[in-house]
Amino acid sequence: MTLKDYRDLEISGATGTARDAFERALDSHLSWRSGADLHLQQAVREAPAFTMAYVLRCYFDLCNRDWARVQLARSAHATASSLPATPRERLHLAAIEAALADDFETFRTLLHRLLEQYPRDVLALQVGHAFDYLTGDSEGMAARIEAVLPAWSADTPGYHAVLAMQAFSLVESAQYGSAADRALRALEINPWDARAHHAMTHVHEMTGNAAGGMRWMRERHRFWGADTVAATHCWWHWGLFHLALGEVRPALAIYDQYVRGKRSTEISDLIDASALLWRIELADGNTARRCSELASAWAARIEDGYCTFNDVHAMLAQVGAEDWQGARRLESALLSNHRQPTRYGETTRLIGLPACRAIVAFGRGDYPRALHLFSLLPAYAHRLGGSHAQRDLLQLTALEAARRLGRSPRSVAA
Questions:
Q1: How many secondary structure helices (H) and strands (E) does the chain include?
Q2: What is the pLDDT of residue 409?
Q3: Number of other CB atoms surrounding residue 221 within 10 Å
């Protein structure tokens, strides 16, 4: 008899013990908990021909803004491609191959096909959700989850993660009441779902309820502050709440102790550090020494040529530190890539290069040029990726440029 996963989908090459370890790895991944790698290693040790274990390994690396990390998926993909596979598993392998070739349109098409045929494939849903976030496709994110919901119920393993994904998609669609409802329902099922806790911080952020957001995070710190891959990012949110209340010094303390305390070189941590430090600078905080350290940490990533969201945050660090040589180096890399006929070439040309030039102009005090360059960003600049709470940094910078010129904030397009 063919073995099936916890959602009744056939899996190749597994044993019962390996399947259970795989499910623990998957749930940790879905809940943003630490330890997913260890569970997955156990699954592979128990069943070296377990195809979906290698597929999950690929997705751990692919759902990332780190070019070097993404390339690691090639090895697991090669192994999985040599193993027996069900039709569903072959669709996963084809999707991974497309993503590795930077062919995101084919990748999306294959994920759509997967979820049409297997709506309870929570891994396909998670990966699609992650790439919608990375590419700023909030409409696609909401539609993807809505389409599969009829196949799910509260007794289906992983349902809490589906609700948490839906909560975030609703935040990005400005449906804050519904987002809070889904996040709270997810937490009723699994209080340790850090993704659902994170969605609630976004609800508080986007509704301007900084005090309520800090209270929420403080009361539930044990659920998101340890043994989760989202801890640094959640501290970033706490820093934003301080800034929203006009509390610059506590925001700096959050940066020093929790966001940058470990001097991490992980892309996600560097992004959070750049985003918080720049906002503190806009609020007249003293960031010079910190910016220099952060710019140095970004130095090895400047020429990755993979993600425009990374480029913008790397430029924030260079400009914040007044490292004009680093800024020129990054701009040169963007100029080398902006005419490439690739996804990254397009986002560099339409968003990355003008946004980074606007940031440089702002940093040099050329506020008229900064405002002009910000105004040239297309209406679909949301395809930069990330959340509304992250992307508003460009708007905040344009507003500050207008303020320094003595102009009304109304003069800056929304």
A1: 24, 0
A2: 59
A3: 14
Q: What is the mean pLDDT of residues 165-175?
A: 96
Q: Read off the pLDDT of each residue in 393-405 and give the average, rounded to a whole number.
A: 93
Alpha-carbon distance of 110 to 95, in angstroms, equals 6
pLDDT at 408: 61
d(CA 64, CA 164): 19
CA distances (Å), 335 to each of 108, 202, 304, 370, in order?
Answer: 28, 34, 13, 18
Residue 342 DSSP label:
S
Q: What are the phi and psi torsion angles at 85 (to 5°)?
A: -150, 145
What φ, ψ does residue 193 adopt, rounded to 5°?
-75, 95
The whole model's pTM is what?
0.94
3.30.70, 1.25.40, 3.10.20, 3.30.420: which CATH number matches 1-123?
Answer: 1.25.40
Residue spans of the domains in the chain: they are 1-123, 293-414
The identity of residue 292, as a single letter, is S
Quick one: pLDDT at residue 385? 85
Does residue 76 contact residue 51 with C-beta atoms inside 8 Å?
no
Give the count of beta carbons closer than 10 Å to the beta carbon of residue 341. Answer: 6
Phi, psi of 33 (to 5 degrees): -95, 155
Residue 72: strand, helix, or coil:
coil
Answer whether 237's CB lies under 8 Å from 217's CB: yes
Look up tokens 């708007």; give the residue.
395
* Separation CA 209–CA 231 (nearest Å): 20
In the beta sheet, which residues pair with residue 10? 4
What would the pLDDT profile of 84-114 be if each residue is shown by its tens digit?
A: 999 999 999 999 999 999 898 999 999 999 9
The answer to whether 220 and 212 are in contact (CB under 8 A) is: no
- Work out the end-to-end distance of the chain between its first and last CA atoms, rounded to an integer number of angstroms: 59
Given this model, what pLDDT does residue 412 score? 58
CA 217 to chain centre: 20
Residue whose pair of structure tokens reads 């699994």 in the numeric block:
190
